[in-house]
Amino acid sequence: MIKIAIPTSDKTHVHAYTEQATFFAVATIANNSISHLEFRPNPSSTDAEHSDRHAHRQLTEVLADCKVMLVQNIGKNMIASFDGLDMQIEITSEESIGDAISRYLSQKDTII
Q1: pLDDT tens across 61-85, in order?
Q2: For the domain 2-106, what is the CATH superfamily, name and number?
C-alpha cells in the first residue's frame, strides 16, 4: 500500500502548477486501485505571509506519508524541499487525477 499525492484546485484535475494548487489529492493505493481518496490543503498556495522555504517545509510535513507525487510542473525549490524524503516525483501529462494515477500504476511492473 502506498499514497500518491497530486496537486489540484478543483478536486478533479491535476493543477498545471504544483505550488499554486489549492489542495493535494492523496490517493491510497492497494492492489493497484484507489482504496481511499482525501484532499489536503496546500500551504504553499495559502501562506503568502511566509517565505517559500517555510511554506515548502509545511508542505513536506503535509505530504510526509506519501511515496509518490504526480505533477505537470514543479519548481526547483519545491523539488529541493523534498530532498531527504522517500518520495518519488513523476511528471504526468494527464489532466484528470484518475487518469494520472491509472497511467502511473500501468507503468509499474509490480502490484502496489
Answers
A1: 899 999 999 999 998 888 888 887 8
A2: Dinitrogenase iron-molybdenum cofactor biosynthesis domain (3.30.420.130)
